[in-house]
Amino acid sequence: MPSSQDVRFTFSSTADIAFEVVSFELSEGISELFCLNVELISESANADFATLLDKPATLTLFQGGQPVRYVHGLISQFEQGKTGFRRTWYRARIEPELARANLQSDWRIFQQRSVPQILQQLFKDRHWGACTQRLTEPHQTREFCVQAGELDLAFYQRLAAEEGLLSIYQHSEAGHSLILADHIATFGILQDEPLVYAPNPGGDPAQPALHSFTYREHVRSSEQTQRDYTFTHPRYNLEQQEQAMHLDHQSSGYERYDYPGRYKHDNAGKPFTRTRLLALRSDARTVEVTGDDARLVPGLAFDMVGHPREDMNIGWRAVHIHHSGQQHTALEEESADSRVGTRYNLTATLIPDTLQWQAPLLPKPCIEGPQIATVVGPANEEIYCDEHARVRLQFPWDREDRNDDRSSCWVRVCQSWAGAGWGHVALPRIGQEVLVAFLHGDPDQPMVMGRSYHAINRTPYKLPEFKAISPIRSKELHGQRHNELRLDDTHGQISATLMTDHQHTALNTG
């Protein structure tokens, strides 16, 4: 085992000049984007930003002369600082390819796809790099899933958290890839020797180890209950409940009740409820450690030895790590700190490796007002509906512009009167403009609330000339004739007329 501070850091990039590492800070975690900030120095004062910005770079950590860790990503920020006796200072920020998703947004509809399928398509369409899915559970198809103006990154992270999908990064000298899993144990274990807990009162420790260990428990919600509504089973409340495990040290009576649960079937509601409870309890049992063993990475389980409490010498898993390193020897005569040598340290948050863990849920966009849409359907149809009087819609923001029966899911239509086999039904026809609201502001739950005229679809009678007339006029299917009920409220000559273009018949009253 090498000495704990027998360490060295190197930096490689696509630039045609060489850099030495002065210091770095790396933040990473499960279901987080890693962020590496590196302070560099070079004998060249002429770094070409075009060969660096948005290009790949790699930080390598050596311990005992062997590379124990690579951090690969794209340079998202680069800056040039002062020039000293012989060297120039630079700073670089390295992030994963997925970080570019924070620069893009969209309005987009996904239909009849599971969340893993949606994310797979996003990675392909947006060129977010390599992504491997390790799935052990079935994932329900979502009938209608809308990216409602969200940043691509927010949409990706929200869907992954809702579905209980976790991610970590795997790095090599030449690249990095995202691992997406629905069970934390899928990430695997650290194959080498156990990590050692060795509190160090002073001086350099003999080998890389964990030097402080603080165990902590929080009182958190112990039960998650949810309900929702679906018009296909209006008398069923879709209630789901999930009780937390490992409640030895707290009450079991802290219930979290949410409505709506954002699901329409029990087979979707049960995993949603479990995922939300795990997210609420993500920090119920944690450990904060410091140390200098660079083998520690997020997601991978490891065994620990050396703690005076035997029940702490168990398997653990890091959910977040902050690394820092100083290599002042690179400064040579530029700084008095060059005599300090090279140091590497980390702080990390751990959980027992037997626990399930989920990332905190993220808020879903809320569409506060109604939107305009157009009724669509197959070619050569005028009325297109299903057994529930639902229609398909084309939203003006949807850039796929299908304008057919694939443009949206079936969307319910609010009628003026509705009962059990009685009421009023007027189906929106293809080409009509409709006003769409969203239940609970949920972009995945549109509902037609009204209809409106526009410059092409004009009123039956010219306005304001015939403003006293209130007609109800229908149109012959695949024809041009009409049926009409006309109420004329003209002063002194009010009347009501029921008429049809068939046989040109009319019934007049008044």
Automatic annotation (TrEMBL):
Q: Describe the location of the Gp5/Type VI secretion system Vgr protein OB-fold domain by residue ranges.
A: 387-453
Q: Which Gene3D superfamilies match?
A: 2.30.110.50, 4.10.220.110, Baseplate protein-like domains (3.55.50.10), Gp5 N-terminal domain (2.40.50.230)
Pfam entry (one): T6SS_Vgr
Residue span(s) of domain Putative type VI secretion system Rhs element associated Vgr: 475-510
Q: Provide the family line.
A: Belongs to the VgrG protein family.
What is the protein's given name?
Type VI secretion system tip protein VgrG
